[in-house]
Design a protein that fits this description.
Elements (H helix, E strand, L loop, with lengths): L1 H14 L5 H7 L4 H10 L5 H10 L4 H5 L1 H5 L3 H11 L3 H19 L5
């Protein structure tokens, strides 16, 4: 379950690469050592802090609970998932069409 809380670092980066531990700590009314320990050592936050963090980073509890499955995913795939979660329906339609186009092009490639 430590991997669950280590995901905070990933989602913090996805939210804004300029957010420091001190800034996050200020937002959740904690000291920066608390945030550092959660990110770097997998320290378990209190339930209330956990709720604040996942709310602030717009991450579902489900994404944390199933982080073990995410361990099989690359950081790039996780980053794309975070980006997709922030998109509206029109943007998702564009991404879906792009992915389908890439898949179709791959299927029609002639082997060298």
């Amino acid at each position: 379950m430590n991997a669950i809380y280590n995901e905070i670092a990933h989602f913090k980066f996805a939210k804004s690469e300029y957010w420091t531990q001190a800034y996050v700590a200020e937002l959740v009314d904690r000291d920066s050592h608390t945030i550092m320990n959660i990110e770097n050592t997998g320290q378990y936050p209190s339930f209330n802090l956990f709720v604040k963090l996942i709310t602030m980073f717009d991450v579902s509890v489900d994404q944390f609970i199933h982080a073990d499955g995410g361990a099989r995913s690359s950081s790039c795939r996780k980053h794309i998932d975070v980006l997709l979660n922030s998109m509206n329906e029109k943007e998702l339609v564009v991404i879906e069409a792009t992915a389908e186009g890439i898949k179709k092009a791959r299927e029609t490639e002639v082997p060298e």
